[in-house]
From TrEMBL:
Domain Ribosome recycling factor: 23-185
GO CC list: cytosol
Cytoplasm as UniProt keyword: yes
Native organism: Algicella marina
Function statement: Responsible for the release of ribosomes from messenger RNA at the termination of protein biosynthesis. May increase the efficiency of translation by recycling ribosomes from one round of translation to another.
Lineage, top ranks: Bacteria, Pseudomonadati, Pseudomonadota, Alphaproteobacteria, Rhodobacterales
Subcellular location: Cytoplasm
Alphabetical keyword list: Cytoplasm, Protein biosynthesis
Gene3D superfamilies linked to this entry: 3.30.1360.40, Ribosome-recycling factor
Protein name (Swiss-Prot/TrEMBL): Ribosome-recycling factor
Transmembrane in keyword set: no
GO molecular function, one term: ribosomal large subunit binding
BP GO terms, sorted: cytoplasmic translational termination
């Protein structure tokens, strides 16, 4: 009977990879002293009665290492985009020039670098929690399969496989965190 019981480790791995991809997206939004268009990805603008990502109402360019230009398409949204950037927690004060917002990226001081490293650590911990939640779901599938007649040997094999997947993804989260913290602390 145990031959027809199977745990879909591919789906578990795909969900764990999703947690890693979300972490990389969050890391991209952390500013490390260099200008990057992706640092504005989490900024949401109140426009036309709803909240939308900034890249859906403006063009974002990086003409030099310490400057980001935001060219707002609709003149009536300039103030909303300015407000969204100021309230985003990025620590950037836009300078308005018609429909163009100039975002000078200041040098990071030591204290701000430490704060950003802590934020990166929080993002990594959230990713670890997501990976462990996927592992828990896999283990719950195993308990159900055992109730449906899976043998103890098969259950042990699947448990080891799920744990191995989890360990691999946690290590990848830790490696990504270490690389990002080094990038943040680099002067």
């Amino acid at each position: 009977m145990s031959e027809d019981i199977d745990i879909d480790t591919g789906a578990l791995e795909k969900r764990m990879d999703g947690a890693l991809n979300a972490l990389k997206t969050e890391f991209a939004s952390l500013r490390t002293g260099r200008a990057s268009a992706s640092m504005l990805d989490p900024v949401m603008v109140d426009a036309y009665g709803s909240s939308m990502p900034i890249n859906q109402c403006a063009t974002i360019n990086v003409p030099e290492p310490r400057m980001v230009l935001v060219n707002v398409w609709d003149k009536s949204l300039v103030n909303a985009v300015d407000k969204a950037i100021r309230n985003s927690g990025l620590g950037i004060n836009p300078q308005m020039d018609g429909t163009i917002l100039r975002l000078p990226i200041p040098e990071l001081n030591e204290e701000r670098r430490r704060e950003l490293a802590k934020v990166a650590g929080q993002y990594a911990e959230n990713a670890r929690i997501a990976v462990r939640n996927v592992r828990r779901d896999g283990m719950d599938q195993l308990k159900k399969a055992k109730a449906d007649g899976m043998g103890e040997d098969d259950q042990k094999i699947w448990e080891d496989e799920i744990q191995s997947l989890t360990d691999d993804h946690i290590k990848r989260v830790d490696d990504a965190l270490e690389a990002k913290q080094q990038e943040i602390m680099q002067v």
